[in-house]
Amino acid sequence: MTMLSHADLRAALAAQPLFEAKTWQLSPEAWPLTLAQVAELEQIGAACLEFQQALENLYLRAAAGKNLLRNKPLLAPWVAEYLDRGKPPALVALGREARLRGVLPPVLRPDLLLTADGWALTELDSVPGGIGLTAFLNRLYEEKTPNSKLQTPKPSGAAGATAAGILGAGEAMVTGFYEALAALAPEKPAPTVALVVSDEAATYRPEMQWLAAQLQQQGRRVFCLRPQEVFPLGGAVFFDSGGTPEKIDVVYRFFELFDLANVSCAPFLLEAWAAGEVAIAPPFRAFQEEKLTLALFHHHLLQDFWAENLSAGLLPVLRRLIPESWVIDPSPLPPSAVLDAPTVGGRPIYDWRQLGSASQKERDLIIKISGFHETAWGARSVTLGSDRSRDEWQAALEAALALAPTHLHLLQRYRKPRREQHPLYDASGHVRVREGRLRLCPYFFVTGGRARLAGALATFCPPDKKIIHGMQDAALLPCRVAAAVSAG
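Given the sequence above, the corresponding structure tokens read:
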């Protein structure tokens, strides 16, 4: 395989910075995936889409006080209370709008850790960064990868699946992103699309600007805008296009709902959406952006619901993928009750504070805020108990309990990523094979009722890093599909 030189990589990234003030380690090669792994990713995408569809049904039925099961009684108003907690009533009402029934985020990105037991899904992001970066890296690496002009390969079970090359080559990321957004305005053959990036998410603005530029080169009317560049006119929303107001048909909101009050154009967007003048994606549905939904998947009272609402083929996929998870809810219990929670010393607990005395092995648990908070992204609220002192662990528990009246936290079993090897450039530009741990972020664009795999971003971290994210010590890489024998 031809490798990308250190000089070429540095020059390409210097000419087109994709993040503000952010650097990472460089590698001569894309991350290799087998055809079997690609087929598994496609199955994961289908499972994530089904999960989002079932979650909508769960939330809306719980909120309406309706029975959750076909042939048995099961009411769960507490589900809606969990997912609505701490949110403005107007936002809660918006998420339940009849017009939004069946409306899902157009981009789904599960965060997957490669463990000794396979993939572990730690989060399902519906407002993900990295779309432009992954597309840029795909293009950069595909020129040096054999057979790189091939599109995403068929699953390994498909006859003659021998394709190899960059996963998402041939502009699959760029065009797939546009098609998912354009589908939101089917009456417009060439909709004007605005990628609205908030100040809170400004780090990601360069990659969104790059995406818009690539689509403009294809003749698409796609623009990356700041919130203050969007203004109302006649019930619709517009921006200044060369001195002339241009109507926006579709808005891709690159901002979290907790930041809504700081997004100056948000009232105009909502008014225009209510008038049917603009489509907005992801929809203003806060329940779709809560991490605690993974704990709901494991909740013992909801197992029959998931079994009824997920297909027999994909329910086991999610059970393998999603680590055991719990909602840290400090509501009082009767004296005879215990928590649905990890055990300490082999015994069930009745108070979350009892986890503070857990052994280091028992503290192989992650605490993170569920959502609707400024620390809910970028691993800023994540605490791994086995990697912290007892005092630090107890402090994280106390903080989670103190915030519970308005912001719930998720407790999740930690599944340690296994060690892998990959070549990286050192500071002097020499290639060294390094050990590390992998997080994979596949991107699925939802169109026509399907989640289509368009590419994946690999984050390869040093082995001593327990929490994997896009730090400067990590390598950010596109993925290539290793050649495979035809499945005859």
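Residues 35-63 form the longest helix (29 residues). Try to locate this feature in the token string yourself.
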